[in-house]
Queue: 2 jobs
Job 1
Amino acid sequence: QQQVKQSPQSLIVQKGGISIINCAYENTAFDYFPWYQQFPGKGPALLIAIRPDVSEKKEGRFTISFNKSAKQFSLHIMDSQPGDSATYFCAARGGNTPLVFGKGTRLSVIA
Amino acid sequence: DAGVIQSPRHEVTEMGQEVTLRCKPISGHNSLFWYRQTMMRGLELLIYFNNNVPIDDSGMPEDRFSAKMPNASFSTLKIQPSEPRDSAVYFCASSSPKPQGGSYNEQFFGPGTRLTVL
């Protein structure tokens, strides 16, 4: 059973546009929702994370929107740049459990 | 800090051979995780340790897979015998303890080992 469902699988965005990646979860015990960014040949690295007591968190061009009632959260990349081209993973965890990852979204930002 | 160190970075072996992947977590981190990444299945958690003790190995696909953490600075993932379907990128990650009442600490990933079983 996939605990975190991520969409889309791949995304192509024009330079300067907005990239949006969505995730949904079922486990109401989850209380930590990070996004990881992975470049080819590298391990995933933490990009931004949110706790469910806030509905939005912004760091530079990256924003997480969180909807607790719908059990959904999304990553928005404003003014997308070619350097943002990477694979993005949403994840979730709660209590003493380890992170559960979505299947990833391959983002390509084209000039 | 050098980050999480994995070796080898690439491994090519033949079916039936034993493969050992190695990981050195970040000093001071007490949790260590082994993941497998494939196009089809994404990032799968295989096993994780807290304070060198295996906590959950339910993600280990078969008895051919085993993992050890003899001390706080070293872990191994062994596949014996290896099969072509084991071909994947294997990641090790570590994190420090969650402070009482505080937020979760970041999980740091190593660069991965790309395993090819012919």
Job 2
Amino acid sequence: AQSVAQPEDQVNVAEGNPLTVKCTYSVSGNPYLFWYVQYPNRGLQFLLKYITGDNLVKGSYGFEAEFNKSQTSFHLKKPSALVSDSALYFCAVRGDSNYQLIWGAGTKLIIKP
Amino acid sequence: GAGVSQSPSNKVTEKGKDVELRCDPISGHTALYWYRQSLGQGLEFLIYFQGNSAPDKSGLPSDRFSAERTGGSVSTLTIQRTQQEDSAVYLCASSSAWDTQYFGPGTRLTVL
């Protein structure tokens, strides 16, 4: 069965520190992995995706994510957090033979000044 | 505008009334999705349209929910005889085939 786990409901980071939001997955075939961000009272915004190629993917707003096949993980990272990064982050995955994205439950990221 | 648009942005209705939510996808996108998001929660898949193929309705929670997509573009999600548990944010997304989904701002539905 396909699944996505975001093990942390909330992550707290001080401004200027590096941040990591974790995501692990289980999918049949090759994974297509996505990160989205949701600011309060807004829709989801696409951040980045992994389909194939380099394991380190760079996206919007200085975010990047590392695909680790052996650990079936796709953690979201940023070297230096901003207060404006505070939002809800969703990881999603699909297999290469399925259109439907499987969504994680979301991680609330709080960046404190 | 080049993005996905949804209307209305907010809808307050009385229990038992019918509501229609509209989604205008990105021009040229063949795939359209509807999701439901309860307050601060994850996304619940509702329905998927792809081109002229029969829609995947497997996520619709009851027969009170229906959706159509006219001319391969605009979609309408209809909820009949609304219940309080239908209160949520309804999100629409579109994509080119199975590529990245781009979301609209959502419609916040409140059933009193």
